[in-house]
Amino acid sequence: MTAARPGGAHASHGRLVVVHPDADVLAEAVASRLVTRLLDVQSVRRPVHVVLTGGTVGIASLAALERHSARDAVDWSGVHLWWGDERFLPAGDPDRNETQARDALLAHLPQLPAGNVHPMPAADAVATPEESAAAYAATLAEHAPDGAEVPEFDVLLLGMGPDGHVASLFPGHPGLDVTGVPTAGVHGSPKPPPERVTLTFEAIARARQVWVVAAGAEKAPAVASALGGAPAAETPAGSVTGTERTLWLVDAAAAGTRDADR
């Protein structure tokens, strides 16, 4: 990957890489970018479909959006919210991405109808990750264009782990090879908890825009690997793309540029 100074951007294998100085600025920038995207899309079509992510930066971005001055310019009644993956835990568990998103943003949006929020079924509602995945696939299909399995997501946010995983698609894990369905149950996740539910590569590939968000020096090797063309089995993040745009939104440490700029 060609180094970019913090605040800069460059293209890499058809992706746009935007580097921000640190994780705090990154979260604020993601929030501003998301507000702008929502307003732009709502000017031409409705409803808007957004896939949320968890993780430190993902949730910090939602918290920044809650504080954003343009937050209420969005018509939240026309926004549908989804998740790229979820920990298979009871509803309300603090480790669920849904719980963290509700605390950071969704609970502060009275205009957002409850029916527009689509969490993956929790462990106290269904018996297995596979049942949760099947139920989520059915809900996705209800909101998809005719003949499609999932909506054409306007933004699909993905965090990335130090191992290069996105959603709950882990290096060398059987979930990478799931085809023909938009969702999958995950067992034996290398990151706790071991049971999860995830969108598949095929579902992610339906998104108009995919944004991969990463911060921290521990992510730098995976960022370099993904942008360098590593195969999905090695670095899954490198194999996600949007049909219209793929953005990598990273801080200087994750881009590997912090030391070079000192």
Quick gist of this model?
The protein is built from seven helices and ten strands.
Describe the structure.
The protein has 262 residues and is α/β, with parallel strands linked by helices. The protein has one domain (23-209): Rossmann fold (3-Layer(aba) Sandwich), CATH 3.40.50.1360. The chain is built from 7 helices and 10 strands. The protein has a 7-stranded mixed beta sheet with strand order 1-2-10-9-6-3-4. Strands 5-8-7 form a 3-stranded antiparallel beta sheet. α2 links the parallel β3 and β4. The two termini are 19 Å apart.
- How many helices? The count is 7
Q: Which secondary-structure class do the elements indicate?
A: alpha/beta
Give the overall silhouette: globular
Query: Based on DSSP secondary structure assignment, what is the total number of beta strands?
Result: 10
* Fraction of helical residues: 25-40%
Q: How large is the share of residues in beta strands?
A: 15-25%
> What gap, in angstroms, lies between the N and C termini?
19 Å
Mean pLDDT across the residues is 94
In CATH, what is the class?
Alpha Beta
CA gyration radius, whole angstroms? 17 Å
Order of helices and strands: EEHEHEEHHEEEHEHEH
CATH fold node name: Rossmann fold
Function: Hydrolysis of 6-phosphogluconolactone to 6-phosphogluconate.
GO molecular function: 6-phosphogluconolactonase activity
EC number: 3.1.1.31
Catalytic activity: 6-phospho-D-glucono-1,5-lactone + H2O = 6-phospho-D-gluconate + H(+)
Reconstruct the topology from this structure.
Layout: E1 9-12, E2 15-20, H1 23-42, E3 48-52, H2 55-67, E4 79-83, E5 85-87, H3 97-104, H4 129-142, E6 155-159, E7 183-186, E8 196-199, H5 201-204, E9 209-214, H6 220-227, E10 245-251, H7 252-255
Parallel strand pairs: 2-10, 3-4, 3-6, 6-9, 9-10
Antiparallel strand pairs: 1-2, 5-8, 7-8
